[in-house]
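Thread title: Can someone regenerate the structure for this chain?

I was given the following input by a collaborator and told the matching structure tokens would be attached. They weren't. Posting the sequence so someone can regenerate them.
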Amino acid sequence: MIDIRDLCHTYPDGTPALDSVSLQIDEGEFVVIAGRNGSGKSSLIRHINALLLPSGGSVHVNGLCTSQKKHHPAIRKAVGIVFQDPDSQFIGMTVEEDIAFGPENMGLPSARIKELVESSMETMGICELRSHSPRALSGGQKQKLAIAGVLAMESQCIVLDEVTSMLDPLSRQEVLDAVRRIREQDTTVICVTHRLEEAVDADRLIIMDSGSVVADASPRDVFKKYDLERYGVEIPPVAALSKMLASAGFPDIGLALTKDELLEALCQ
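Best answer:
Regenerated them for you:
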């Protein structure tokens, strides 16, 4: 679905952001992108729906080149981005109106818009908030509303840019549970995060540093093979604990990614 080849980007002030990035993402994949601040994560995802254009190399979405302006409407329908600050994305006076804004601008029939709004609210678990003002919602509710707005546009790919970074643990878990429901619909999900515990069930974990991809494999392989502290990120606490136990005399414990995995390994 997404084909990135030798992508380079330099901002107008001369600041380099991306250096020869190449990667492909298939439809239905769940991909997590991590790295220290300034590693190029946000610059990369903004190329996926043509918010930024390449200084060098190319980006194709469903075979459409982002550098060609005529393709931008189709690309932005296919790829929806939810940013860290959801308040910057709200348009409607109520939750229901806000979700309907995208489909209305696509010119869809009223009956179809209603179906999409209802389906999106149900997926994100916010049906009871339909008449509330977006500004009156909690942080977690706002993020779920922002994601619902993208879902209502029938996006094939949803990009989440640090959407849980400002949330309390309960709200963070509610958003992650909603993302799991989205993945069950075979939607491609690309998640930018600093919290690698959110990556344990991803298909791929991509680590970026200084504008380049330095690791691209399954989360388990990345945790095993790379010194992630070198790139400004930490492996999840459970994985770190299993590594410590292995080095302290439990050589058969392996690398556990979840509490259940670790408990099972210890009991055996």
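The beta strands are 2-10, 16-25, 30-34, 56-61, 64-65, 79-82, 157-161, 188-192, 204-209, 212-217.
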